[in-house]
Write a structure and sequence with these properties.
By secondary structure, this protein is mainly beta. The chain has strands at about 5-10, 15, 30, 50-55, 55-65, 65-70, 75-80, 90-95, 100-105, 105-110, 120-125, 130-135, 140-145, 150-155, 165-170, 175-180, 185-190, 195-200, 205-210, 215-220, 225-230, 235-240, 245-250, 260-275, 275-285, 290-295, 300-305, 310-315, 320-325, 330-335. It has a domain at about 220-339: TolB, C-terminal domain (Neuraminidase, 6 Propeller). Helix content is about 0%, strand content about 60%. The strands form seven sheets. Strands 2, 21, 22, 23, 24, 25, 26 and 27 form an eight-stranded antiparallel beta sheet that branches. A four-stranded antiparallel beta sheet has the order 4-30-29-28, with no helix packed on it. A four-stranded antiparallel beta sheet has the order 5-6-7-8, with no helix packed on it. The two termini are about 15 Å apart. Mean pLDDT is about 85; it is low at about 1-15 and about 20-40.
Length: about 350
C-alpha cells in the first residue's frame, strides 16, 4: 500500500445514547506504510477486480458463490458475479432506483423506489426469474433477510408515516411491524429484533420486535443516520453531518452507551458487520478527496484505498466485497481479504 495514507483511530469516544455532544477531533492522518502481511491471496492495497461493469454500481450483497451488485439509476441493472471473479451476468434491467440489496444463495431481493406515487416495490430474483415480491410501496429504502422472512422499510408520505414491514419468503401477506415511524431507512435483523435507522426528526436508531409492537430508541440526535449493520453484540451505523462528512458509531444491540468509531469521513456508503468485525466504505477520503477507501473496526483500520469511489460493502467469512465507481467513469466489483 505504498504512498497511501493510513488513518489511525483516536480512542473510542463514549457518550450516552441520545446524546452526541463532545465529539472528538477527526483522526490523525499519518503518511506511513500499513505493513500488513499478505493474507488469503490478495495483497494489502491491491484489491482484486472481480468484474468490470458497464454501469456505475451502488448496492452490493454476497451469499454463497455469488456477489450481487446494482445501479442506482432509473433504468438500473442488477448483476451477479462469481465470488472468485468472472463475467457479470445481468439478472434484471430497467430497475428504477435500486436502493438496497439482500441475498441468500443464488436468490436476491432488492427495493426499487419507482418513478413516484406508490410504485415502489421489493423485487425478488431466483432461478425461475424476476418478480415483484411486494408492491404498492411509496419510498422503500432498506431490505434484509432473516429466518423465513423478508424485512423492509417504507418511508410512506406524508412525512412521519414510515413503516417497517415483513413478508414470508414463501409468499403471503405483508405484515406491518411498526408505523408512524418517521422515515425509516436501512434495516438489519438478527435474533435480537429488527433494527433500523430513521432519518426524520431527531435522527434515530431504533429496534422493533420481529412480530411488531412498540419500537425502542437506542440512539438519537443524528442529522442523517443511514447504514445499519449488526455483529451480534453491537448495532453499527453511519450518520452524515451538516458539513457533509460522515461518522461511524456503534451501540449495544440491547441499548447502552454509544461509541464513536470513526469521525470526519467522506460520505460512508455502506456498512457490513459480523462477529469478526465491522467494515465500511467511504466514497472519498478527506485526506485525499480523489480516493475512496474501505475501513475496518479492527486494529489495521485502513483496508483498501484507491482512485475510485466506494459505493457499497458486503462481507462473507473470508473476504470483503465492494462496489466502486472508477476513475474512467465505469464501475467495478472488487474483493479484498478480511484482516
Amino acid at each position: 500500500m505504498h504512498g497511501l495514507p493510513l488513518l489511525v483511530f483516536l480512542p473510542f469516544a463514549l457518550f450516552a445514547c441520545g446524546s452526541r455532544s463532545g465529539l472528538p477531533e477527526p483522526p490523525v492522518v499519518l503518511d506511513v506504510e500499513a505493513g500488513v502481511p499478505e493474507e488469503c491471496g490478495v495483497p494489502p492495497g491491491q484489491a482484486e477486480v472481480l468484474a468490470k461493469l458497464d454501469f456505475q454500481p451502488a448496492s452490493i450483497a454476497v451469499s454463497g458463490a455469488w456477489v450481487f451488485a446494482a445501479a442506482w439509476s432509473f433504468e438500473g441493472k442488477v448483476v451477479r458475479v462469481p465470488t472468485g471473479g468472472g463475467a457479470a451476468v445481468v439478472i434484471a434491467s430497467g430497475q428504477p432506483a435500486v436502493n438496497q440489496l439482500a441475498s441468500e444463495g443464488a436468490a436476491a431481493f432488492w427495493v426499487t423506489q419507482g418513478l413516484g406515487g406508490t410504485d415502489g416495490a421489493v423485487i425478488r430474483s431466483t432461478a425461475l426469474g424476476t418478480e415483484t415480491f411486494a408492491g404498492g410501496l411509496t419510498r422503500p429504502q432498506g431490505v434484509a433477510l432473516y429466518g423465513s422472512q423478508v424485512y423492509f422499510t417504507d418511508g410512506v408520505g406524508p412525512p412521519g408515516n414510515g413503516r417497517v414491514m415483513r413478508k414470508p419468503k414463501s409468499g403471503g401477506a405483508v405484515e406491518t411491524l411498526g408505523s408512524a415511524l418517521g422515515e425509516p431507512w436501512d434495516v438489519a435483523v438478527n435474533a435480537g429484533g429488527v433494527y433500523f435507522s430513521n432519518v426524520a426528526g431527531d435522527g434515530t436508531i431504533q429496534r422493533v420486535p420481529h412480530t411488531g409492537g412498540k419500537s425502542t430508541v437506542l440512539a438519537s440526535g443524528y442529522w442523517l443516520p443511514r447504514n445499519v449493520a449488526l455483529d451480534g453484540t453491537f448495532v453499527h451505523w453511519s450518520a452524515m453531518e451538516p458539513d457533509q462528512l460522515s461518522s461511524v458509531y456503534r451501540c449495544p444491540e440491547s441499548g447502552g452507551a454509544t461509541e464513536l468509531l470513526h469521525a470526519a469521513l467522506g460520505s460512508v456508503e455502506g456498512i457490513a458487520a459480523d462477529a469478526q468485525g465491522a467494515y465500511w466504505g467511504v466514497r472519498q477520503s478527506p485526506a485525499n478527496p480523489t480516493y475512496g477507501a474501505v475501513f475496518t473496526s479492527g486494529p489495521k483500520a485502513l483496508l483498501e484505498s484507491g482512485d475510485f469511489s466506494v459505493m457499497g460493502v458486503a462481507i462473507d467469512q473470508n473476504a470483503v466485497y465492494f462496489t466502486t465507481i472508477d476513475a474512467d467513469g465505469a464501475g467495478s466489483v472488487r474483493k479484498t481479504c478480511r484482516r
